[in-house]
Each structure stands twice: as structure tokens, then as C-alpha cells.
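Predict structure. Input: Type I restriction modification DNA specificity domain-containing protein, 456 residues.
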Amino acid sequence: MGKEFRIKDFLIRIKDQIIIEDDTTYKRVTVSGNHKGVKLRDEVIGALIGTKKQFVIKAKDFILSKIDARNGAFGIIPDELDGAIITGNFWTYSVDTDLIDTEWFFYFTHSYNFIQICIESSTGSTHRKYLDEKVFLNHKIFVPEIKEQKQMVKRYKSSSKISKKLSLEISSQKEYLFQLKQSILQEAIQGKLTEEWRTARQAQESPLEEASELLKRIKAEKAQLVKEKKIRKEKALPPISDEEIPFDLPEGWVWTKLGDICTKTGSGSTPRGGKSAYIEAGIPFIRSQNVYDGGLRLSGVAYIPMATHKKMKGTKVQAEDLLLNITGGSIGRCCIVPKDFKTGNINQHVAIIRTLIKSNGYFIHKVVCSPYFQNMIYEAQTGAGREGLPKNKMDNILIALPPLEEQQEIVKKVEVLMEHCEELEKEVAESEANAQMLMQAVLKEAFEGEIKKEMV
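Output follows.
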């Protein structure tokens, strides 16, 4: 048997406040959404903690984020985080173990019913909803007797084995697809995808312009643009040494540096006034959150006035430019600006890579997205947090340059293969959604099914 209880009948709020001492090291905690649980955020000395009033947590207590509880940000505090600290954005509760088995409650919080309670208890604007503690604690749930709770946990664990196995398989498939896409890009930039194409092309009568000739042509055209004052003269990049070369090239290819095949590289800036300079409509102002490997995403893009855009004439974005994120967590993401794009500008977190030959940019995009180039970005970063790619180091990254005709063939092959990968990713995503539905069905059967029987 069992009966209905309000949540406040078995969760008791704990507020164990402390004042942070500068010479003491503290464990700080984060609570991840989507039921990913309670984790160690970092260990830091008190002098580096700005908010001096914090709260101590205890193992086996229940913790939630008042901001993200509706998104599954809650859990049971593990033993290794006993004594860690939290800010007032997290709330902890001791669990009355005379009424509630802690493990039962942990699994119950993963159920649709509990998520609904958190959603219904959250108030505020769309982007800043907070849990209303009074509303949350006054929600009623049916609680079986402790003995039945333990039996339900046992049934759930037994029933969830298939679901967990399926989840592991899906994780393996996602990792395999990621590695497959990386392999495709790496083989593309080393000429391995076009080995058969080169053999067939050599049998044709019309000669193929080698990459060395293409490079000479680019150099001559750049010199002419400098002479006509259409582009700035850049300082010559140092020659490539044998020690720098990372892999062998196919016949007809040549090593060059990114800066040598571009008419412009470099980042933008933030207009004076920061966000206050943005307007409702105007010239698109592209930031790192708009740049993805799959393309430019203009939903949520900021806008600046035409007058500001004209002042920032050095970083005007053109159709078929490459945009590369050069700072922060999204460093290395790169997109090609669409052909029908009119104009725009960029901030300091995004760099323009403008190849002299527009069609060359599509191949360079594949190079930038490859494991080779991403590793070069990592090695070239500067700053205390290793999170910035300066122009001079970006310009000096080596590029394995194929003949222009082969570049176009590589882009075609990569795009066909990536389309196949995307189809597989859709199937995996569908399987993942089904696995989540299965997990909820298992929870429903193990918890709600038994509860309904008890209430009849």
C-alpha cells in the first residue's frame, strides 16, 4: 500500500551557509541538465571565488538547479562531493528515508511525471524561468511503502538493461560516424579520395595544370592587385622547411601557406558600445554563434547600422568568404558564406579567409574542417587559456594544395560521402529518440503502473 504526500513531506530544505576563506581550497559543483547528474565543476582556492557566501552540500542529499530544474538539472549528491560548495542558484534537500528510498526517488526524478512537476512549478519569462519552491514543494505524488519502493527499483533495473544496452550501442554508432567523417576529410586533403580520378585524368590528352603553376598564377595576380592598390601588401611569409611537412603529397600537388593563397585574412571587432550598438534591422553582424561547419546560421543574428558598417570597411564580409571562429569553445568552426549573401560584418571572435580564386575556397573549407587543420589550430593557439588563434599563426598554417580541377573533384566526393553520413546520423537520431521513449516506458511501467495498482 501507499498514500499521497506533498513533496515537502519528504524533502527538507538544507541551508548550510559558510563564508569562503581565501586560503582554503574548495570543490565546486555543477548540476547538468537532461538527467546527467551532479558533477565536480572544479577545485579552486577561496581567494579566486567572488561570491563569499556559499552553501555546503552533503552526500545523498537531493540537489536541483532553480534555473534548469525543468530541463532535468537535478540529482542525488554522490559521496565524493560531500562537503563541496554551491551558490544560491542551487537548492539542496535532505530526504526523509522513513518515507522515501533514496534510490527510488532518484529514478522517479527521471520520469515524465517529475519533469512535469518541475515545468509546472517554474515561472518567469521564456529564457529566465525559475523554480517556485513553494509551488514545487506543494505538489502531491503517490508514494508506495518503502518495501514496495525497493521492489520497484529492482524491477526497473531489470527492465532497463535492454534500454541501457541500446543506449550504449547508439553512443558507439555516433562515435563511429564522427570518426568516419573525420577520416573522409583527412583522406580528402591527402589526395587519397582521388587516387583513381588522378589515374583516369592522366590518360586524357588535355594537360592538367599542376598546383605549382596554380600557385605561380595566384602569386602574380596578388602582386597585380597590390600594384593596383586593391589589396594591402602583406609581409612575406617564411619559407617552408622540410621539418614542417606533415605528410607526403601526390604528384602534381604542392605545399603552400594559407596566407599565400588569400587576399585577406583577419578578424573583426565589436562596435563601440558593444551590444548597445545593435539595432532591430540593418547590416548582419556575424558572431561565432552564427558560424557552423555546415553553413552560416543567420537566425538570431545581430544587426548594426550602415554607418557603423562603413567605418568597419576592413572586415566587410563578401559572398563565398570563409568565416572561421578563432576564440572560445567554438574555435575551429568554419563556414562558407552563401553566393547570394549581400554584405555583412564580423566581430573579433571571427576571422575572414578570402581566397584569391573563389572556387579554391570550397576546397580550403574541407581542409579547415579536417583533423589536420584543427590540430594546427590547437597548436597555434595563444593566451593563458589557449583559446585564441592570431592572424600571423593562422597565415602560416601549411596547406596541401592540389590542382584546381582536382580540388573541385575532392569537394564533390566529400559532399557525396557526407550526405551518406548525414542520412546515417538521422537514423541514429531516430534510434536515440526511440531509446529515450523506451526508457520512459520502462519508468512508466515500473513506477506509474505499480502506483496505479496501489491506488485502485
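Residues 450-456 have pLDDT under 50 and may be disordered.
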